[in-house]
Design a protein that fits this description.
alpha/beta; 7-stranded mixed sheet; 2 domains; binds pyridoxal-5'-phosphate; 38% helix; 358 residues; Aspartate Aminotransferase, domain 1; 12 strands; histidinol-phosphate transaminase activity; single chain
Length: 358
Amino acid sequence: MAHPQPRPNVLQIPAYVPGRPPTAREGMTTFKLSSNENPYPPLPGVLEAAVAAVGQVNRYPDMGSTALYAALADRFDVPVERLSVATGSVALIYQLLAAFCDPGDEVVHAWRSFEAYPIAIAAAGAVSVRVPVLADGRHDLDAMAAAVTERTKVVLVCTPNNPTGPAVTQAELDAFLAQVPQRVLVVVDEAYAEFVRTPDPVDGVATQARHDNVVVTRTFSKAYGLAALRVGFAVAPEPVAGALRAVSLPFGVSTVAQAAAIASLAAEAELLERVDALVAERDRVLAGVREAGWRVPDAQGNFVWFELGERTLDFAAAADERGVVVRPFAGEGARVSIGEAEANDRVVALARDFPPPA
Ligand SMILES: *Cc1c(COP(=O)(O)O)cnc(C)c1O
């Protein structure tokens, strides 16, 4: 008997494996370091704005997110026509692929990189072209440029790269963009931009202004600590921003998310002090782990990558015994988020006790 059938690509969509919550342990505080979340709860002013907005949930949100667009335009000095807000930057990536890819079109990206990419690409019916990262976890941008074919519609550049950690430099990005044909859309996923402390950091918004084929995606989920509210934004050429808005789900960004995002922009200085504290913790963990004999890649996000091969799941289990949940990628390695100081201490202690690869 014939059954309703989804498009064939839907059956090919890989499952998204979310970071697990910690296993509860008697008499032990447990920590979730598996989803690159911000360990700080919302600032009082942000919480108040969000709570006040809850009082209006009988009404639909402002579909045009007018006040949020105005606040973003002001903060980043770009016209609203070049902005698009959405329910997180993952949604922006889905929307970009839906708007730009026909079935069978190719999307080039680094691998391992953000696990949502192959899922979003498959959902769009496009083909994922994975270019292995270099041994030090950096994007191989020359190989990515060389992987562009007639069928390529989009290239995804993840900087800093989740889960390996290094950031692309501005000089590298400029050289890359000079090699990619104008008809190919280059998405610069800057989910962790606020955590970058390199001498030549990418300025995504300025880069976007110089290129008609570049889109930058940013999120309130990581540095701003609003992961559960689902709000992010893109800075894009006007026609691309328009296409993004055209394919967005109506009323996606909730009233609460809009209010909290606006309040976060107003409190940015205070939020970025927290980011500084997390960066200091990241550097402390990185130093401790390296002192213990690990060769870990540069960490420019709020996480550290341990390359573990076949021992990945053992490492994750050993972390779990210490009340810390990490994000294992079986056979490859484990990504460990920077969290509370006590959680970070446990990670360094684990790195001392768990033998590094020979
Ligand atoms: C966390 C993350 C995002 C942000 O996702 P949201 O949908 O905004 O929560 C985007 N890209 C990468 C690489 C990430 O790690």
